Amino acid sequence: MKVKVLCRNPDDYVRETTRDIQRVPRNYDRTLHPFEVPREYTRALNATKMERLFAKPFVASLGGHRDGVSCLAKHAKSLSTVLSGACDGEVKVWNLSRRECLRTIPAHEGFVRAICSRFCGTSFFTVGDDKTVKQWRMEAPGYRVREEPLNTILGKAVYTGIDHHQSEGTFATCGQTVDIWDEQRTSPIRSFSWGVDSFSCVRYNPVETELLASCASDRSIVLYDMRESTPLKKVIMKLRSNTLCWNPMEAYNFTCSNEDYNLYTYDMRYLETPVTVHMDHVSAVLDVDYSPTGKEFVSASFDRTIRIFPKDKGHSREVYHTKRMQHVICVRWSADNKYVLSGSDEMNIRVWKANASEKLGVLTSREKAAVQYNQKLKAKFKNHPKVRRIAHHPTRSTPKPGSVPIVTEKEKHVVTVVE
Amino acid sequence: MCFIYIYKKEGSDDERKHAKLLEAISSLGGRRRKKHVERSEASVQVSEFSVTAGGAEEKINLCDLLGTMEKTPGAPSKTKKQLRNLQNCKETLELPLSKQQTEKVGIQRTVAYEKSTKEVSRWESVIIQNQKAEQLVFPLKQEPAGPKRMEQVVAGWKAQTPLEQEIFSILHSNKQPVLDPVLTPMEKAAIKAMSLEEAKIRRAELQKARALQSYYEAKAKRGKRIKSKKYHRVQKKAKQKEFLKQFDEMMKTNPTAALEELKKMELSRMEERMSLKHQNSGKWAKSRAIMAKYDESARSAMQEQLQLNKELTQKLVVPSDDEEERRAEEEANALPDFVNEAEPVPDSANPWMRGKLTSEASGPDVSDVAAEPGVSDVAAEPSSGQEGEQHREEEEEEEQEEEEEKLLREFERKRKLRRNEEDDLAPQPREERGSEWSLPASVVLIPHHCRTLNTSLIHVQFDSYNRARHLNQFVQLYVAIKREPQRPEPLKKPIFPPQSFAEQAAIIKEAFAGDDVISDFLKDKRKQEEAGRPKVVDLTLPGWGEWGGVGLKPSRQKRRKFRLKAAAAPPRKDQKLPAVIISEKRNASIAAHQVSQLPFPFQNSAQFESCMRSPVGQTWNTQNTVKKLTAPRVVTKLGAIIQPMAKEDFLKQKKGPEAAKQGAIPLRGTRKKGKKKDSR
């Protein structure tokens, strides 16, 4: 007679070592786990709420400048090093991880207009209102040794911008003309002008490294090729563009920050119309910088905010501001895609998280999984009205409808009539 | 002459004096004026050629050159003429644009811009690929994970101790890599021989070949197991055909193999001749012969056997070249009879498959006779008395023809009679009368429907009809129709003649006589109200707490207790609106959570719903699935600098396998270039 007995294979439930995690048998039958959509919907709603709750983007403020911060630059090889120039001609080198100033250099008389780091990270260049281009060593000089520039080039006119080539020893400056310099020479190897007498910004294309673009005072954006003797093309807009930035992952796209409160993303092959217009700022946009992944960019504005835009969306994903932050003049996205740095009129450099609610530091695998699951849920249910309402919740407090009286334009400008 | 000389001398004297005077004046001024020393070139005045341009200002014209040309006897008169023509030609070339103008027009600029746009556009594929990518991992250029090779880690390390040196010497002798070359020569050779991608491709090919082989094997096995004789016969025939085709080719390409094949054929012929296999002398054949009188299949089987025998015993004649030529000549002279003959078709029951379809009515009859059962057995016999046979056939044909004619005549008579009757009854205007045969309507109507009727369609119709007697007539009819294609007359009158409004209204009323819209609407509304009303729920369990069984019902008390009446529904919104139905299915509390519009990437609501329905969480999916589903689109590494896209990556992607094969040589080249520029 055959007797059937319950049998269990210990291989199914006994761990090989005590360090192994317990095996949890699980039945994935849908009928055993009903209401999957409502449950996930609730989770998505909660995830969205938590995201807004934990949105605390401000990390640190670096104080020490004695005038407004006019320019910022990232170190090419070190994540923790940042360079900043102020309106009083001082350049400071910062250590971000320790949040302290490493070096202070009285670099120029008048404004420091722009800084850029050399691609190897051993030196950096500054241009200022004193019509000079100075090259500085990245490491600090020894004790009691005066800060002296490696090279100084005296120019004829004020330089307003500088950018270094991605892999060669050449750099570009702009002022009355756009000049291309060799590091070994004291005169420009090439100089471009196209009926304009002042440029505000020049940037090298990080991908197609021989291309450049500049913003000019005649409201135009001019493209150049370093190898050619003439500029390539220019597009004239309604208002002046202050700065521009090339997308580091898309060779032909760049975004410019405009005086008309908008940013425009252009494809350099089709300059007739911008690819996208990014609106949200309520004052002139002063600076723009792409994230190193090329998916988003950050913009600094005269309206005292910085905003983060997805590169193909018309409206911003995030707006950062604090009570004490004045006009933001310069902004940079860190090379590890984690932080945003902003320099503003009231002498402070602020460090922000690129993702406002992101948990910093090393995550455990379960935390990581949870974050990813929540992201997925948020994306999946983003169109549902309740989720949407929370995700798009105004971060600024706006007046209640009716609390501010409506005054017509005619009435607005007369205060009182005295008899 | 002399006078002139004197004069000149005087003149020169004067000049000298004048110069001296000037010198003296200039010296009075204190500083001595520097004398300009001019150097003149002799070549301007004197040339080794006979052409001179006189002074520096004068230019050489074409006519100057032509003068010498005329003098030289060696120049051909043709060129002289051409040059003369050129001289006469008054047209001038357009001025080249000035430098300013070129910049203004921006030719250079446009050229440069186009060049750079082209250069930049190379990135398009990469960028689009990245946009579409499920996941992007930054930094793009990552160092390979895992332990690094010893040689890479310890650079510049040398064996120092005697033991180490000994080991190294052994390694050297075995051609093992010691320091710089990471791979052994053997490995290198292997890598050179076949790259990974090639190997992959090769493996895929082999896999495919194997799969195909097994598939064919399975197919053959299946075919072999089929018991149907007919199937195998067909297969055999197909094979034979194939073989013949191949044989023809083989004759051209490989004559020796063809000869062997021929020998084989010869052998089989010999065997056939020796044996009595297909000669209808066996037991089975005899029985068939008895049955042949009554059974058609038996007859055909016997015939087949004989045919086979004939085929097999036929002598193979390898035509020599001369013979072939002769034959070709003959062919050219006179076309053989079979060219005009219709092809013999296996299905002899259907005479219409024999061609000659649209010819005279007698045509099909001839073939018809050949297919008659009585004749076929005669034909099957060995061709001893062919002439007699033919004679008999002809006779039978005539008989057949007579029969047909008789029938036709009879039909004609009948038709006339019928027509007369109809004429008497009511004269009809239709012209189709002529075609009203005793054939079924479907057959008759075909030509009308489609004028481009092909014969195959007729065959089909005939098969269905299957009465040989009427076919002739049909064909005649068809031919007639073909000759004079009758086009349906276009409608000249409008379908509905103009009518008064009242009439139209009446028509509409008539058309919608059955519809009562109002009552339908009311019914609909009532139905909706019914559906919306809360229902009574009956929870009685028969036999629970009391006796149950067939014929027993739960008590009234119990029924009252367990029948749950829901509260009355709130009054409907359309209660007092008789002509309106307001649906109350929409639940406001749920609607607040529902999506009102179809979100962007989805094309229909079904798509969106299916996307929503599939859960992502761990509760419903296995761990791997969850990992896959929740994988983020952008992955960055903590503390790693993300460099902009580099040209090298792009080139690598662009070239693909070739670049991988060639290795780092081109890359190194570009890097060197960069360095050179750098040093400059």
TrEMBL record, chain A:
Cite the Sof1-like protein domain residue spans from the record: 354-400
What is this protein's gene name? DCAF13
Entry's family note: Belongs to the WD repeat DCAF13/WDSOF1 family.
Pathway(s) annotated for this protein in UniProt? Protein modification; protein ubiquitination
Query: Where does the record locate the signal sequence feature?
Result: none
An example of a GO molecular function for this protein is:
ubiquitin-like ligase-substrate adaptor activity
UniProt source species: Electrophorus electricus
* Keyword presence, Ribonucleoprotein: yes
Tell me the keywords, alphabetical order: Nucleus, Repeat, Ribonucleoprotein, Ribosome biogenesis, rRNA processing, Ubl conjugation pathway, WD repeat
WD repeats, residue ranges: 62-104, 278-309, 321-362
Q: Which GO terms describe its cellular component?
A: Cul4-RING E3 ubiquitin ligase complex; small-subunit processome
**Protein name, entry field:** DDB1- and CUL4-associated factor 13
Question: InterPro entries this protein is in?
Answer: Sof1, WD40/YVTN_repeat-like_dom_sf, WD40_repeat_CS, WD40_repeat_dom_sf, WD40_rpt, WD_repeat_DCAF13/WDSOF1
Compartment(s)? Nucleus, Nucleolus
BP terms from Gene Ontology: female gamete generation; maturation of SSU-rRNA from tricistronic rRNA transcript (SSU-rRNA, 5.8S rRNA, LSU-rRNA); protein ubiquitination
Automatic annotation (TrEMBL), chain B:
Q: Which GO terms describe its cellular component?
A: small-subunit processome
Q: Which family does it belong to?
A: Belongs to the UTP14 family.
Show the taxonomic lineage.
Eukaryota, Metazoa, Chordata, Craniata, Vertebrata
Biased composition (Basic residues) is annotated at 669-680
Q: Identify the coding gene.
A: UTP14C
Primary localization class, coarse: nucleus
Q: Does the keyword Coiled coil apply?
A: no
> Where is it localised?
Nucleus, Nucleolus
Q: Which organism is it from?
A: Electrophorus electricus
Protein name listed in UniProt? UTP14C small subunit processome component
Q: Region (Disordered): which ranges?
A: 316-407, 648-680
The biological processes this protein is annotated with in GO are: rRNA processing
Q: Cross-referenced Pfam families, in alphabetical order?
A: Utp14
